[in-house]
Each structure stands twice: as C-alpha cells, then as structure tokens.
C-alpha cells in the first residue's frame, strides 16, 4: 500500500493536531524507510518479478524485522517513546506509535501472504488485494481522499505556500501512484531501489514540511 498510508497520516492530524504532518508521514512509513537499508545490508531480501501480482512486481522474501506484527509494535513503542521524550505529550506520542503500527494492518489488506507475525515464526499473512488492480486503486483512493478531506476540513492555508504546497503534495502523490501502478518495473538492483525510494521520500517529506508549517489548525 502507498497512498493509503499517507491518507491515514493526513487524517491522524485531527486526532493529534500538535503532531506535524512531516512526523506523521515518517511514522506511517517508518518501516518502509528502514527497509531499504536492511536490504542493502542483506538482512532482509526482496525479489523483483514482473507479473508477480497485478499491482506490484515485488516478491517480499524475508523482511521480519521491518514488517512483522511484533516488530511493528516494537517500532511503534520506540517511535512513540522518542516523540514523548522530546515533546512530553502523551496523547500525541500514542498517536505517533499507533501510526507506526498501522503500517502492518494496512499492508495486510493488500499484500499476498508474506507478512510475518514475529521475526522468527513461519506463519505469514496477507489478504492479497494486490491481485486485483481495480480493487487496489479503489481502496487506496478512498483512504487517501478521506484523509486529505479531513486534513483540509480542519486546516486552512496561512499563505500561498500553505495552499499551493498542499496542491503540489497531492499532485505528486497522484503522479507517483500512477507511475507505481502503470509504469515499468524498477531496476533489479538494490542500490537503484534505495536511490529511487530515498528521492521519493525526500520530495514527499519536504512538501509535507512546507505545507503543514504554512497551514493553521481551525
């Protein structure tokens, strides 16, 4: 899942308005941000197999330290705890921790059965929505649009940067999603995968920072 994670982050601002959109974006994508580095270290493994599912060519062979349910709980506690240490805001820290954990549950909807429960178990889960492109597009779009609507309803632009930053952020998400769904498969190279993923994150997080700091909570 791609847009769905960010849609949840947009919507979470209503529950925790003190948490920046940048922080929420990092939280919902934390394990995916960590994942390419573990690939580089050969701690986790992925194969690129065009046609593996209708939506994605990735076959996630081994990624228990980023994408198991137990480690999702651990990373949620770590990130929520770090946020609390700096902000001393329990409510917001809980939201940050739950945002990290939400990644596993949203992935559960779309992944084929490849999500482990623990770093050491053999059971894997996934409802397999990636085997249907139309259903995946519909589900991700609904979550994303709902989250953006909640964010827009509860914030207003302080200036042009707040207005056009949000427009640019949404436009970038749409373009990235279309490329992910209908573009060519990525290079079968871990460094290339890491590079493209980091470029994506830099753009998304930069636009999130620009947008949110130039919008005020109603």
UniProtKB/TrEMBL annotation:
A family per Pfam: YdjM
Gene Ontology terms for molecular function: hydrolase activity
Keyword Hydrolase tagged: yes
Record field: transmembrane: 21-41, 65-86, 93-112, 132-152, 164-183, 189-210
Keywords carried by this UniProt record: Hydrolase, Membrane, Transmembrane, Transmembrane helix
Domain of life: Bacteria
UniProt-listed InterPro entries: YdjM-like
This protein's name: LexA-binding, inner membrane-associated putative hydrolase
Species: Dyadobacter jiangsuensis
């Amino acid at each position: 899942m791609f847009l769905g994670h960010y849609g949840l982050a947009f919507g979470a601002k209503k529950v925790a308005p003190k948490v920046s959109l940048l922080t929420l974006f990092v939280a919902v994508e934390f394990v995916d941000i960590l994942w390419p580095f573990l690939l580089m270290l050969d701690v986790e493994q992925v194969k690129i197999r065009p046609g593996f599912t209708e939506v994605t060519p990735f076959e996630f062979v081994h990624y228990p330290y980023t994408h198991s349910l137990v480690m999702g709980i651990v990373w949620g506690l770590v990130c929520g705890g770090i946020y609390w240490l700096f902000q001393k805001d329990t409510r917001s820290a809980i939201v940050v921790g739950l945002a990290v954990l939400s990644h596993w549950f949203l992935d559960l909807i779309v992944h084929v059965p490849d999500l482990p429960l623990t770093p050491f178990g053999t059971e894997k889960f996934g409802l397999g929505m990636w085997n249907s492109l139309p259903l995946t597009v519909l589900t991700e779009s609904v979550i994303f649009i709902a989250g953006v609507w909640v964010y827009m309803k509860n914030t207003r632009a302080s200036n042009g940067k707040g207005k056009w930053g949000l427009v640019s952020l949404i436009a970038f998400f749409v373009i990235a999603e279309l490329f992910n769904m209908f573009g060519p498969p990525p290079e079968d190279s871990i460094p290339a995968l890491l590079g493209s993923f980091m470029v994506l994150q830099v753009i998304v997080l930069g636009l999130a920072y620009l947008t949110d700091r130039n919008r005020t909570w109603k």
